[in-house]
Amino acid sequence: MLERVKKEEISFIDLMFSDLSGQLKCVTISPRELEACLEHGKWFDGSSVEGFTRIHESDMLLIPDPSTYIKLPWPRDGRNAARIICDVYEPDKIPFDGAPRNILRRAFEKAKAKGWFYKVGAEIEFYLFGSKGEGDYQDKASYFDFSPNGLGTDIRAVIVSTLEDLGIHVGMSHHEVGPSQHEIDVGYSDGLICADNTLVAKQAIKTVASSRNLHASFMPKPRSGVAGSGMHTHQSIFNSSGENLFHDEDDPYRLSSLAYHFMGGQLQYIREMAAILNPTVNSYKRLGGFEAPVYVCWGQRNRSALIRVPRYGKNRQESARLELRCPDPSCNPYLAFAVMLAAGMKGIEKKIEPPEAVEEDVFDFDDAKLAQFYIKSLPSDLGEAIEEFDQSKFMKETLGEHAFNKYLGLKLAEWGEFNQSVSEWERERYMDL
Known about the structure:
By secondary structure, the protein is an alpha+beta fold. The protein folds into 2 domains: 9-96, Glutamine synthetase, N-terminal domain (Ubiquitin-like (UB roll), Roll); 105-394, 2-Layer Sandwich (Creatine Kinase, Chain A, domain 2), CATH 3.30.590.10. The protein is 36% helix and 21% strand. A hairpin with a 5-residue loop joins strand 1 and strand 2 (24-29). Helix 4 (151-165) packs across helix 5, helix 8 (333-350) crosses helix 11 and helix 11 (393-399) packs across helix 12 (401-420). The radius of gyration is 22 Å and the shape is globular.
């Protein structure tokens, strides 16, 4: 890596990491600092990062992960810059329990101890608005619409090229259901790599949009009456030989018992995970409309289901996977993938069987039919999600006590602030009372 820095004439090196909310953070060093940084780490003030340490425990270390080094496609002051993603350590070089990347790594290590390798692909949806998130939609297109000279087609091409330059494989890109809504699929890969790529991809999409005087918004429901933005997440488990352990050719859904138990775990713990997968007040305005799931069930042809089993052809066992459809792009991908994996592993360990598949549109079910299929619903708002999270031993075990308590505090503060705020809707409806 040191040789690449010289060969590529790098002048700035960004050391990147994530806070607890999923915000990308960065410390920039010069190349002459890099060798010492690789050996000893780089000090930073952890008390200034949301969800990290208190003021009297502020000294923390960034330890670069050399495998994440890449030259950035944007020169800075006419000179080349590079990026390295870092892990966060305490001063004695012990991994910091509250760092999101470390939380995901812990979940991965538990899976690897059983010979399991968790692979993930994320579908990132977003809207393009004016430079400050205002103004009209940039197009009136809809799902899969194509216009060779359209702004959306053009900017998606630039985004895809930029992501590939960043070493991020893009599985597919297209226009989404809403006007000015788009989707970029981060390619299937090792879950830790996919989490890194998802975090960086969102920043890259914003950067490309800004260069065109546009604003890319990952807000789950940026406007009323249009489709919300989700982050459907595809998952499977492989063994060390590259065999997909979710595949069983003799099953009607071509799923193995391991896959069914993994699904059973996610369905059982989904309400407890909601505050991680759908972490904002706005998240719950997306759920329940435009095929965004709200009912806890699964199926194959049913796009109202929480978990969908995508179909695939014969001799394509590597394609066996489960698609969890409730996460949205406001989530922290490290925490989201960590709790998703942990819930699936619980399902495997406890042999949790999922309920019967539902292949009808669940949005058309009345209460009696929901009860017939034992179908629960996701939390109706962030307050209900916080209550489920607060009472969850599973979430405290997965995140660790430090991250659990910090995250709970952040969400309680967010919910309290929202409940004290007065919206434009309230003013329009009640001002003349």
